[in-house]
Amino acid sequence: MKLLAVDTSTYVMGAALTENSRPVAEYITHVKKNHSIRLMPAVRSIMQETGWKPGNLDAVAAAEGPGSYTGVRIGVTTAKSMAWALGIPVIGVSSLEVLAFNGRYTGGIISPFFDARRGQVFTGLYRWENGRLVQLKEDRIILHEEWLEEIRRLGEPVTALSPDVEKHEDLLQEKLGPLYTPAVPQDHLPRPSSLACLAADKEGTAAHLFSPNYLRLAEAEAKWREKQKEQQHERK
Amino acid sequence: MKKETIILGIETSCDETAAAVIQGGSTILSSIISSQMESHKRFGGVVPEIASRHHVEQITLIVEEAMEKAEVTFEDIDAVAVTEGPGLVGALLVGVNAAKAIAFAHDLPVIGVHHIAGHIYANHLVKPLEFPLMTLVVSGGHTELIYMKEHGQYELIGETRDDAVGEAYDKVARTIGLPYPGGPRVDKLAQTGEADIDFPRAWLEEDSFDFSFSGLKSAVINTLHNARQKDTEIAPEVIAASFQEAVSDVLVTKTMRAVKKYGADRLLLAGGVAANSGLRGALQEAADREGIQLTIPPLSLCTDNAAMIACAGHFLYEKGQFADDRLNGVPGLALESF
Ligand SMILES: [Zn+2]
């Protein structure tokens, strides 16, 4: 199976081609520059280098979120539009799961996370078991403090992976103490070939039905729902 | 015989997800618009993040519907034209990235179109443009007089210095207490009232083709405020009619003066506020009086749509003006000649 995978959900931008889960080409940058301008040139470049034609692809995979709303949309829109135009399925993979892939030789539990402002993070809990990445706790948005207390109680070494790790380093040390297992810099950055490998084991979706998994309502929507609840309360 | 060029157009600059297929630059094979109005109504205006979320959910469905209705396949399509800007950045990005991905999949050229050029070219879908022409562009974000000597040549000769017409309409609507979207409701209300209040008209410098609506908007707000303080009532339809008359008066007078000064043979009305019946009527009357040929698109082509984007894109296609893979959504894109 020939796969194109794209990930623009954080500032790491990645595009990869895999054939039967074996990476054939990979393009990754770790700079905070515009994904909308750079994604399609990256895709075209790896396709040209490998001599692959769009018509050769069996599916397109994308990191479906959580992450930057706009970032996630660029990748998801590109993947679903291309898949639809080619008449092939699109496969969505959690952006956090892609990052957790980097913890494959740690043995302990893996908490990939993205900073979500105001002390919150997008995170979930994973572990490698018998050569497979298994999800232990589902992806969510939560106060990082609260989350770290929850996973410390599991009493296992924790590999916390994140492009935003520096900002959270002190908190990780403080809350996890000796359980905290620091990772090397490149393991904090998601790889598109990992995304493609994970996608190869998942079910595809019809392109029309594929949309981001933001894990959070738009702010205006959240406020509106809050107000509805209050009004309902007042009426009672 | 060479087959006529077929352009697929995509527009996602605000709260409409739209796709269209145009043949030969002027035949609309299909034009599909999915409006998000209902979903923004409860917020009293368009919420950019929610608009972007809708676009990404809708985009392929709408493009597919446009192609199915037009009965074309990718083999029939010569290029994909998409709104590059101006507009809401997050919304634009969905259309732009969809267009690039679709084009890449089928090795088609991509064309970036300026949203206002699209509104102007909506008129070409009604009747082929003839030059030189003058366009009055009126929308929620724009109030401009644009002079064109030929296809793709835009000369901005006047613009608003503060609020766009559509903005002024929305603010007045809110002051009267009309729900979103306010503009069309003010227009409707105005038709039932007499324009008894003489609101100020901002003519600016004698030779200026610029506009200003903030003073008028404040005058409306003050008038209502004073009346409320004195415990008197002014019928909202009188406010609406008087406001609408003041707006039309300035727009029509300046436009007709510009037409004369520049010796334009043709006058176009473009943009979402071109749907305004008061303005349509007043401009038609003035054009008839002066013997100037006026085109106003039907309502379906005044509001945002992709047929107009495909149409403007057609002329860029003819000139070989293609975008590359780096095409981006540009919220403040300037209207440049091609
Ligand atoms: Zn518009």
TrEMBL record, chain A:
Q: Which domain of life is it from?
A: Bacteria
Pfam families per the record?
TsaD
Q: What is this protein called?
A: tRNA (Adenosine(37)-N6)-threonylcarbamoyltransferase complex dimerization subunit type 1 TsaB
The record's annotation in InterPro entries points to: ATPase_NBD, Gcp-like_dom, T6A_TsaB
Origin species: Alkalicoccus saliphilus
Which Gene Ontology cellular component annotation is one that this UniProt entry carries? cytosol
* Keyword annotations: Transferase
Which CDD domains does the UniProt entry name for this protein? ASKHA_NBD_TsaB
Name the Gene Ontology biological process terms.
tRNA threonylcarbamoyladenosine modification
- List the GO molecular function terms: transferase activity
TrEMBL record, chain B:
Q: Give Gene Ontology CC terms.
A: cytoplasm
Q: Write out the similarity annotation.
A: Belongs to the KAE1 / TsaD family.
Q: Where does substrate bind?
A: 137-141, 170, 183, 187, 276
Q: Which organism is it from?
A: Alkalicoccus saliphilus
PROSITE patterns xrefs: GLYCOPROTEASE
User: Catalyses which reaction?
Assistant: L-threonylcarbamoyladenylate + adenosine(37) in tRNA = N(6)-L-threonylcarbamoyladenosine(37) in tRNA + AMP + H(+)
The note on cofactor binding and number reads: Binds 1 Fe(2+) ion per subunit.
Task: Give the coiled coil ranges.
Answer: none
* Keyword set, alphabetical order: Acyltransferase, Cytoplasm, Iron, Metal-binding, Transferase, tRNA processing
Tell me the protein's name. tRNA N6-adenosine threonylcarbamoyltransferase
Q: What exactly does this protein do?
A: Required for the formation of a threonylcarbamoyl group on adenosine at position 37 (t(6)A37) in tRNAs that read codons beginning with adenine. Is involved in the transfer of the threonylcarbamoyl moiety of threonylcarbamoyl-AMP (TC-AMP) to the N6 group of A37, together with TsaE and TsaB. TsaD likely plays a direct catalytic role in this reaction.
Task: From the UniProt record, give one GO term of the biological process aspect.
Answer: tRNA threonylcarbamoyladenosine modification
Q: PANTHER family from the xrefs?
A: TRNA N6-ADENOSINE THREONYLCARBAMOYLTRANSFERASE, TRNA N6-ADENOSINE THREONYLCARBAMOYLTRANSFERASE, MITOCHONDRIAL
Q: Which cofactor does it need?
A: Fe(2+)
Q: Where found in the cell?
A: Cytoplasm
